[in-house]
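User: I've been trying to design a sequence by hand for this structure and keep getting stuck. Would you show me what you'd pick, starting by listing the structure so we're on the same page?

Assistant: Good idea, let's start from the same input. This is the structure you sent:
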């Protein structure tokens, strides 16, 4: 039996912090002002090469919290791309729809993380932002890597915290001054659950209040890989389902740790795209459920909405035909203008574009709660979910398609 790489989350009391991207990443309890502020045990994320038949005995070990094979992950690609309107000025329709343009908060003092294809650090939209970049792709890369060879991560980052470009506001939280950029997907849009798990724990350890992920599990790719190894299609599908479930459990365990790691000092929200596999434009019943890892316990999944026939950002918004159903919240995800790799701007559509809108609004709520001295694990999630409204959406919208509704910035 061929040995595989397994991601293993172990309890490791008493270890020291290690922010490397090597075979082990130690996650100690967060400390503050000389005092421990959370009772979460220290964990160690390691990658071990195992015969899959060894997994049951591994999971029985007392210190093992979760274990899963490293499986293919991929970019949730935009369903369309178009040139940005060069004459546009003021806030984008998405910034207006979530009411970030009228919010007194800007995201100042908040740390956000973007786990994607990297970033173009020279783009004017990111001027003045402390970009802490790390490459987590299997190909390796510069320890201070994270350069975007695809463009997707640059666009998403621009929506979260981009500064104004050519007179247009693209960022929901343009006051963010510190961003963690984890390159987890290569130029072809591919990556692995191993790289994403490492990046997620790195972001949590480095103080991210909000983590934005517009990516998903590549289940067809996993089945194809197993068939290539010689398994019959039926067995490959069965094994892929087991691997899929193990990774869901792993990401749920990581989200539980992210929630407890910073305690009430630096709570972390995990926000992920619902996916673009639905085909409502062909048949209203062709809806697909939220794709993993967004469906893992502890993640906030995001659906996409677009402008209605009247083109107003505060009324008549419709569910994007590609947006997967069953998400937690919704964000603007059709015709979203943001930073283009190499300079300028470009408009994309997808739940990948809705997710950074929600992440940006989350950053605004974090700032408001910090300023009020009321930031805790519960208050920030309650505030974000409580802000959601269905009022701007078209009458009769399916509640399963939009979740709690469109997020709104604090006013």
């Amino acid at each position: 039996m061929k040995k595989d790489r397994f991601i293993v989350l172990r309890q490791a009391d008493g270890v020291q912090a290690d922010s490397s991207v090597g075979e082990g990443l130690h996650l100690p309890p967060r400390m503050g002002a000389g005092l421990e502020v959370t009772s979460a045990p220290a964990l160690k994320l390691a990658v071990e090469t195992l015969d899959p038949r060894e997994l049951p005995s591994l999971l029985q070990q007392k210190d093992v919290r979760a274990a899963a094979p490293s499986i293919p992950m991929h970019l949730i690609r935009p369903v369309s791309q178009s040139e940005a309107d060069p004459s546009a000025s003021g806030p984008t329709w998405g910034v207006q729809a979530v009411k970030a343009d009228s919010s007194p908060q800007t995201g100042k003092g908040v740390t956000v993380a973007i786990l994607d294809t990297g970033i173009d650090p020279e783009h004017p939209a990111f001027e003045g932002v402390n970009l802490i970049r790390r490459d987590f792709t299997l190909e390796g890369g510069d320890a201070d890597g994270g350069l975007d060879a695809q463009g997707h991560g640059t666009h998403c980052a621009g929506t979260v915290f981009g500064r104004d470009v050519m007179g247009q506001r693209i960022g929901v939280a343009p006051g963010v001054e510190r961003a963690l950029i984890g390159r987890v997907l290569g130029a072809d849009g591919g990556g692995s659950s191993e790289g994403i798990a490492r990046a997620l724990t790195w972001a949590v350890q480095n103080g991210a209040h909000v983590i934005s992920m517009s990516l998903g599990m590549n289940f067809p790719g996993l089945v194809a890989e197993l068939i290539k190894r010689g398994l019959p299609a039926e067995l490959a599908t069965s094994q892929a389902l087991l691997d899929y479930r193990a990774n869901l459990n792993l990401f749920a365990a990581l989200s539980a740790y992210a929630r407890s790691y910073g305690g009430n000092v630096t709570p972390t929200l995990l926000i992920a795209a619902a996916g673009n596999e639905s085909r409502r434009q062909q048949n209203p019943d062709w809806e697909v459920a939220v794709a993993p890892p967004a469906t893992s316990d502890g993640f906030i999944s995001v659906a996409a909405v677009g402008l209605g026939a009247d083109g107003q950002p505060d009324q008549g918004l419709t569910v994007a035909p590609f947006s997967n159903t069953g998400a937690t919240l919704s964000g603007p995800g059709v015709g979203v203008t943001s930073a283009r790799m190499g300079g300028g701007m470009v408009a994309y559509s997808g739940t990948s574009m809705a997710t950074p809108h929600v992440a940006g609004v989350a950053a605004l709520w974090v700032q408001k709660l910090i300023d009020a001295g009321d930031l805790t694990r519960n208050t920030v999630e309650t505030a974000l979910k409580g802000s959601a409204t269905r009022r701007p959406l078209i009458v009769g919208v399916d509640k399963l398609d939009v979740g709690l509704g469109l997020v709104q910035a604090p006013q």
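That's my pick for every position. To get oriented when you compare it with your attempt: Residues 233-261 form the longest helix (29 residues). The chain has nine helices and 22 strands.
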